[in-house]
Design a protein that fits this description.
Number of strands: 19
Strand content: 15-25%
Helix content: 25-40%
Largest sheet: 7 strands, mixed
Distance between the termini: 48 Å
Oligomer: single chain
Shape: globular
Length: 412
Amino acid sequence: MKFTTAGCATIVGTALLLSGCAVEPTGNQGDATELTIGWLLPQTGPISSLGSPQIAALELAAADVAAAGGANGLEIKWVGGDEAGDPAVAGQAVDRMIAADVSAIIGAGSSSISLSVIDKITGAGILQCSGMNTTPALTGYPDDGLYFRTVPSDVLQGGVLADRILADGGSSVAIIARSDAYATGLADATESSLREAGLTVAERVDYDPAASNFDAEVRRIISSGADSIVLFSFDEGATIIQGLIQGGFGPDVVNLYGTDALPISALASAVDPSNPAVIEGMTFTQASSGEGTSFTQRLLSEYPELPTTAFSPYFYDCAILIALGVEATGSVVPREIADIMIDLTNGEVECATFADCKALLSDGKSIKYVGAAGPLEFDSEGEPTTGLYDILVMDKTGSAPVVDTVRRTIGG
C-alpha cells in the first residue's frame, strides 16, 4: 500500500512538519497513477533547523510539477521520514519508504546519514538524490548509478574558504571539526587548499560531537596562536564559540569562520541571547541559498516563517530532475529514471523550469536543466561539476547577509 502526505505541510514555530496530517492510501503498488517519492530529512536532531526549508522546497517543486500537468501526467506524492541525526531512526524511515514502493528518495541532509543508508536505498534499486550531501566520501561511491547530488563536493567549498581567509589577510589557521563524514571531509579539503595557498595550518582538532563539553579542544585551538580559526560544526558550534570568546579568541581578536551546517540565522542568539553583536564579523561560506532570486522569493512568499533558505534550491532541483526523468522516459521505474538523469543536465537546449523543460522534451529536444541552484552539468558519476557559494558576514544585529557569491568549477 502506498501513502501520500502531499498538500498537508504546515509550519509550527520555525519547523515545517508533516506530522499530524491525514494519511490516506492512494493505490496499490505498481500503479502508474502517481509518482511516489520519499524524503529523508532532518525534522529533529542536530541539523533540524535546516529541515523546514528543504521540505518547503520539495512542496514547491511538487506544486510546479502539478501546475504543468504532472510528470508524464503524474503528480508527486510524498512519503516523508525524519533522519533525526540517527542512523537507526533513518534506516527505519527508509524501510517504510521502500515498503511504500517509492521511485526515489530525496535526502538525507546529513552526509553521515546518507552514508549509513545509501546501501539500503540503492541496494533496493531505488534512486537517491540529495541536495545537501557534500562529503568527498560519496564521490565514486559504488551506488550502481543510482545516487545523485545536486550540491557539489566540499572539494570546492574548501577552496572557497581558503580563498576568503587569504583575502582577509590570514596567515596561520586553526581548524576545529566534528568527527563525522561531513565535517572531516570539508576540513580535509580546506586544509589541503590552505596549504596549497601557502598558509600555515597551526592546529587541527577533530572532536567527538557527543562530548559533554569542548574545553580541552578549545584550549588547544587557543594555544595555537593562529590568526584565523575555522569551525566545522552543527548546533554544538555555539558552545565552542562561547569557549573561544571566554578564552579571548572571539571574532574581535581573530578571524573566525564557519560553514552552512551551523544554524547561522540563530547562531548569535545561541552564543549570547543578550548580545546580538557577540559574533559580529564572523564569516561563513555556504552552498548558495539563492538569496534574492525568483526561486527564493517564491519560496518565502509561500512559507514566510522559514528560518533560512539554506540548501533549499538544491532539494528543489532533486525533485524537478526526478520529475523530468519520468517525463522523458514515461516511466516511474527508478533505474529508467536514473539512466537519463545525467543527460538532462548536459543537453543542447537550456531550460530553467519544469514547464519549459517539459515542453522541450515533448518537442524531442535534448535539454540542459539549469536549476534553482544554477547549472548542474552532472559528470559521469552523477555529481555537479560547478557550484555557486555565498560569503556571509555576521553583523551587529545577529544577521548574516550575503556579501558575495562566487562560482567554482571542478578542475577550474
